[in-house]
Amino acid sequence: MTGNPMEEASGMAGEEKDQDVVAVILKDHRTMEELFRRMRSVEADRAGALEKFSALLIAHGEAEESEVYGALKRFKDVDSEEVEHGKEEHAEGNKALLALLEVDDVGSDEWDARLEDLVKAVSHHVDEEERTILNGARENVSDERRAELGSAFLREREKQLASDCGSIENVRRIVGG
Hints:
Helix content: over 70%
Radius of gyration: 16 Å
Strand content: under 5%
């Protein structure tokens, strides 16, 4: 980790322009899991990890919805209902993120409880998305199209990250609160 939240959250996307959208999304999922570990650790910079996580979760979800989900729904054998369900789960994760961002005392009992709500919502979504949507994409979408979707996903994610997408004000706007 570089210490630069944008580089960490983006996964240095410039190096990945030709990567499969499935691989890029999976890499983000693993980064989110690592940030969960840091947010749970009393020895880590929990507030810093939350800042990085917030930026990544919002950028990732917005990029999936604008660049990937719609395209995948057009492929036979990629489950359209699961794609729609993925959008619903993004909304649930964003609400849980906002609840955590609104807690002032990092490491308080309230912070820990809301962190676990966030972990539960995002982990559930990641597990379902990997088993259904991403496996469907891997099996039914050509390598070339997955690379195109990967590039579009990364461009949108970078745009989101550059706009301070993880700020509490932006998360409130997305959640509608």
